[in-house]
Amino acid sequence: MIVDSLRLKFVKKALMAHKLMSHRRRNVILSEAKNPGERCGKVGDPSTQPSKFLGPKPKNLDGLAQDDHIKNMVNFKTIIILGRPGAGKGTQAALLAEKTGFRHLSTGDILRKRAKRQDNLGAKIKKLIDEGKFVSDEIILNVIFEAIKKAFQEGKKGVILDGLPRNLSQAESLSSFLKAENFENPLAINVNISNQEAIFRLTNRKTCSRCGKTIPYSEKTADLKKCPECKGKLITRPDDREEVVRERLKIYEEETALVIDFYKEKGLLKEVEGERPIEEIHRDILSLVS
Ligand SMILES: [Zn+2]
Questions:
Q1: CA-CA distance, 163 to 84, in Å (whole number)?
Q2: What is the reported pTM?
């Protein structure tokens, strides 16, 4: 409970900081847009006066640097793949990344990768993962935001998020982050499958005990015992047992479904029917993105 409330406190704080930051930037941009070529505006007009709290004018809001930034803002996309556990989010995100060149950021993979880095955060994450403990929203958001910025700095045109946002507060933090960085609004794509289908897929899929690859159920893979990539032993993950799956779906209904509503209300949500062949779903998603 203490950890939970601490986490909540941090997320709220981070959110407020992001909101404040993006609010300030927006204000500056808006006030400049009102008076093109007359940046200082009229003396005494509060809408054109930089706030005292802003301190020195940020460099990227001047001249060419600003134009560059706006150009970058237009060019960087965030695609969010949503859907019930078992909807095939990872598969679709990977296919989409291959086609678009956007970077696929799967929360699980990113955390595992980040845990290998020899610094404080890496060590902290490694400990949590090794002990099978819950990784806090604070850490997840830090790591994902870091990865988004890195993708942008390395010249990627966008990122595809799979596994985040998982709850409303993560969704709000993500929006604040994107605004603060002057990135475009995200596009959320919900890959829709029924509860029943989710239960079937999760309880029948297998996972490699060595590399973590998941093998979806099909007639072809039903008798598979070893991972096709690393020859590791295939197992049913403990959290893919039916009672755990039902619990996960309940949590999904309670938390992640709110994320879908969040994007729907903002007009940033697209729906795709998920109980079809992977290739068909991929084509639909691709047409929504391009
Ligand atoms: Zn494997």
A1: 10
A2: 0.69
- Cα separation, 99 vs 55, in Å, equals 43
**CA of 208 relative to ligand 1 center, distance in Å:** 5
Q: Scanning the structure block, which residue is given the tokens 């002990």?
A: 131
Q: Name residues with Cβ closer than 5 Å to ligand 1, which is an ion.
A: 208, 210-211, 213, 227, 229-230, 232
55 pLDDT more than 90? no
* Distance from residue 207's CA to the centre of ligand 1 (Å): 8
Residue 247 CA to ligand 1 center (angstroms) comes to 27
Q: Which CATH superfamily is domain 76-202+242-289 in?
A: P-loop containing nucleotide triphosphate hydrolases (3.40.50.300)
Ligand 1 centroid distance, CA of 229 (Å): 5
Q: How far is the CA of 233 from the centre of ligand 1 (A)?
A: 7
Q: What is the pLDDT of residues 196-224, one digit of tens each?
A: 999 999 999 999 999 888 888 888 888 89
For the chain, the domains span 1-75, 76-202+242-289
